[in-house]
Write a structure and sequence with these properties.
It contains three helices and four strands, in the order αβββαβα. The protein has a four-stranded mixed beta sheet, with no helix packed on it. The relative contact order is 0.22.
């Protein structure tokens, strides 16, 4: 059973079409006038891994968590190549967002 808090967090997940050619799922919380803490997951995970960290940090800091290319609700290019999954491409997606 999904908790009410988890359901609320799930409702806060957004998607954006990026100029890098993918649709990225992300969650942005906290005061906009504060510095941003960015949470990036490892291979095979997604932004949902950071729920405890978001609950802790977002009251005082702006927090951004993302699902990287090919993970959860974030797409891959229509004809992905090996270079589409290189670290530089993943970083470009986050910076573009």
């Amino acid at each position: 059973m999904i908790s009410t808090r988890a359901q609320h967090r799930e409702a806060d997940i957004r998607q954006s079409q990026l100029s890098t050619g993918i649709r990225m799922e992300y969650q942005l919380e906290g005061p906009i006038h504060r510095p941003t803490i960015v949470f990036l997951h490892e291979l095979g995970m997604n932004l949902r891994e950071f729920t405890p960290q978001l609950e802790h940090f977002s009251p005082r800091w702006q927090t951004l968590s993302v699902s990287l290319r090919g993970h959860a609700g974030t797409s891959l290019p229509s004809r992905p190549r090996r270079s589409d999954l290189m670290l530089g491409r993943l970083a470009a997606d986050v910076l573009t967002l």
